[in-house]
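Incident review: delayed structure delivery

Summary: a single-chain prediction request sat in the queue longer than the usual turnaround. Root cause was a stuck worker, restarted by the on-call engineer. No data loss occurred. The affected request and its eventual output are reproduced below so the record is complete for anyone auditing the incident later.

Affected input:
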Amino acid sequence: MRILDLLFSVPYLLRIIASLVGILFLQKITKSLGWALVAGVFILALWTGHSPASVRDVAFARLFSPDTLFLALVIAGVIWLSSLMSEAGMMKDLVTSLRSRLSRRNLLAVLPAVVGLLPMPAGALFSAPLLDDADDGKNLSPLRKTRVNYWFRHIWEFWWPLYPGVLLAADLTGLPIWKQTGLMMPLFFAAAGGGFIFLLKGIPSGPPQPRAAGDKAFFPLVLPTVTVIGVYGLLLLTVPALGRFNKYLPMVIGVVCGILVLQIQRPASGAVWKKVLLSKRTLGLVIIVVLARVYGAFIEARLPGGTLLMDALQGELDAFGIPALLLVIIIPFVSGLTTGITVGYIGASFPVVLSLAGPDTGGLFATLILGYGCGFIGMMLSPIHVCLIVTNEYFKTNLFESLMGIARPALFVFICAAFYSFLWSFAG
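Output delivered after worker restart:
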């Protein structure tokens, strides 16, 4: 009993971190991210006081929720679209087209960044094959490609208005979206700069390759992707009820339209469709993403006493007498680490963080910048971030080693965010 009492006296912050470390450790030992996530779920659930019946109820509620169903459809659709484009030779044509327009180093950054304009779950899975094709000589290690693909996929998270997290932040701060976009733009440049400095270092730049005789026009090659973005954005603007019914439904429709456009452009045979639809890789990735969402359900769940886990965590931090500035750093960082998604850390932490901002505009801006930057870093270092998971699965790399390489550009973003926040605080 003393051991149990000791275990359940551990602060919630340490319990959450221990479950995340457990996922990293078990994935390294078992070489199976799926089983590591299952273990992480049980560590978190049981150590936060859930009974076996409660574990079952929370897990089943998340597994069979409409959000999980539509998210699974988006993940499967993205994989099918990228696979069909690859089978049709469009991926190689796209890389060839960009290779004649960009230097090698810029090409490696632009491919995931362009795909990142589309705020789809696991979008890094779409850019991973493009990046792999761009490294036709296989000069880069899978680990380097994992880090580059993952990082540059997310450099838009601070300001691109198609991202739900950006819209939620504007709603919570009350700032017009154009003003928030301008305010957060420097962090976008910090993220892009950090990626170039730390992840693309040592890769020779060189001029673009000469345009080949069979080089295809660029726009038709990106038309399926543009269709997904266009349909998604159009539905959000013209039929907002779809997004209210389910936030992933407009994306599902967009992906389906992208697949239809691709089928018109370069029709796939029945054999190709069978190969793509029945791929075990698709099923495996969907299962892993669903398991990550189950882990998130226990982060969002109420503890046996009725208190939300994140509220209990914030209460502990307050009780420790931590200064307001450190709370602005810690709360979004932990929220990002545990949710692995922008809208998750903003929704969980910003109501608290923004209440710590001063009454002046400079204080609000400084708090927003620092909180957003720290949340972004936590999200990028989260082992349950879906894009990290699918990129590691694609390149067959290790989660822990991938995150070690992300730490340096993440630290660079933190330093830039802290300095930029100080400037606004000083101005205020």
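Verification: Residues 399-427 form the longest helix (29 residues).
Action items: add queue-age alerting; document worker restart procedure.
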